[in-house]
Amino acid sequence: MASETSSSAPKRSLGGWALIAVPYFWLFLFFLVPFFIVFKISLSQIAVAIPPYFPAFDLGQGLQVLFADLKELSLENYIFLTEDDLYWRSYVSSVTIAAISTFITLLVGYPLAYGMARSPKEWRPTLLMLVILPFWTSFLIRVYAWIGILKNEGLLNQLLLTLGLIDQPLTILNTNIAVYIGIVYSYLPFLVLPLYASLEKLDGTLLEAAEDLGCPPWKAFWKITLPLSIPGIIAGCFLVFIPAVGEFVIPDLLGGSNTLMIGKTLWVEFFNNRDWPVSSAVAVILLLILVIPIVLFQNQQQKMAEREG
Amino acid sequence: MTRGPSWFNVTSLVLGFSFLYLPILLLVVFSFNESRLVTVWGGFSTKWYAELLRNEQLLDAFWVTIRVAFFSATVATVLGTMAALVLVRSGRFVGRSLFSGMVFAPLVMPEVILGLSLLLLFVAMDQARGFWTVMLAHTTFAMCYVAVVVQSRLVGFDKSIEEAAEDLGCPPVRTFFQITLPIIFPGVIAGWMLAFTLSLDDLVIASFTTGPGATTLPMKIYSQVRLGVTPEINAVCTILVGFVTIGVIAASLATKRQQVKRERDERAAIAGG
Is A239 an 8 Å CB contact of chain B? Predict the structure, then answer.
């Protein structure tokens, strides 16, 4: 079907054009144009005014003014980002925290997805529903729920103290460990779903054949199940890693004052320091960092779709 | 795999699902706590729910949120369904890859970037910020989720029924409403619900794009959470969780029933014909 529709441009009625034009125009105006504005403002100067920046250039005022304005453009905000090591460390620490969390999510999510894919067929729709349901409940609420569990006088410490496993309450809230827990918890469904999809498709007879030939289960897992589930692992890891890099709510609520993440830095720059040009520059760099994984992810998805189709 | 589930699989399922559900469960349980201390159990009580009904700021924020979510989900469903039809049915046109890029990119884009860029757009347009700007912002990112949900429904759909209708002289708009829409309807409903809950949840984009008089519930919750955990917030969260859980379960039961009915109808049609 896809090859049939895309091989030739079909004759389109007026309605057909309108169907394309409406969502196209909407996304163009509210998604693409704003990026250019962010880019433009990242090149302008901060001002004590409302809005708090000097316009960098204005297309409405004719070419001559535009050229005059273009000379005024400055990379000052970007130079500022390289001078203050807060930004540099925020980027590195965001990527590190996201990568570590993604790895832990994989360690937690793999047995869950595996258990689901190996469960009796009649359980599977219910189990799938149970994984999707937390995705529908508020992100903010799920992060908030951990504050009561992790804080010093919280439920986890109470439990551990009662069991006599520790004498002193552990400090977990407001550390990077709490951020890891928050990210793993919030993004677990994103990893489990694609992984489950690829594990469920796995041909069970391959494992039976390995077993018949005397292969021990752990070796069969290592040689058969794991390699065949790699597409699911990659897709799931991207789905956790990409949004985790720009995460704001989790580091802000669970992390401490020394938890650096770029989403938080951008927020503080914008709302507390009211420096719109610098926060725009931070956003542009964040976007550049994320472009690579996003493109890799879309390529992988396309390859998977082609293999199936 | 005809053998029963192994102990390893059962253990990983139990541990995995406890991890997913225990925190929410604890939050719900402690919303019924008599004591003001959130982590010490002081007996069963519903007083925090009664307190909520007297908190006018919170109720205001709740209504703003519901209105934003309702309008943005509805507009996003229309636009997202159109976008899905374009992606699956419109074949090649100039700028197609840009279009699909714009549909898929917001799904992985950090919210801080979406929020900041939309705010700067509204400022550049000299648009007063408030209810409508939040609604427009939510519509934009929610329509992409709707497009993905509806698209997956459209892909597994027998195109020959539509072609038959058009060959018999049915105009395209009527074909859409009489044939295409009823078949993709479960996807459209799921898309609307997803858009609604995304809007209900969103803190970051709303914080950037809102203005005076349009504080949403997540913003209100966030500002109180920063001051510490309180039983009132637990109660608000419990209501929201309950709301969403009932909605999702009801929708999945309805889809299932419809599916069973359709299968029965198809069998009857084959037997009759």
Answer: yes
Indicate whether A63 belongs to any domain. Answer: no
Measure the CA–CA gap between A184 and A170, rounded to whole angstroms: 20
Mean pLDDT of chain A: 84
Probe site for chain A from B40, B113, B210 (most A CB atoms < 10 A): B113
Per the domain annotation, does A145 fall within a domain? Answer: yes
What gap in Å lies between CA B127 and CA B133, rounded to an integer?
Answer: 8
Question: Of A141, A158, A192, which is closest to B241 when you measure between CB atoms?
Answer: A141
- pLDDT tens-digit series, residues B27-73: 888 888 887 776 677 788 888 888 888 888 888 999 999 999 999 99
Say whether A38 and B116 touch across the interface (CB within 8 A): yes
Ramachandran region, residue B21 (left: φ > 0; alpha: ψ -120 to 50; beta: rest): alpha
Average pLDDT of the residues in A167-194? 92
Q: Please check whether residue A207 lies inside any domain of the structure.
A: yes
Identify the CATH homologous superfamily for domain B55-228: MetI-like (1.10.3720.10)
Best of A37, A150, A200 to disrupt the B interface (most B CBs within 10 Å) is: A37
Q: Which residues of A touch B172 (CB under 8 A)?
A: 13, 15-16
Contact B176, B84 (CB under 8 A): no
Q: Do A142 and B79 touch (CB under 8 A)?
A: no
CA–CA gap between residue A305 and residue A113 (Å, rounded): 21
- For B60-71, the pLDDT digits (tens) are 999 999 999 999
Q: Does residue A172 lie within any of the structural domains?
A: yes
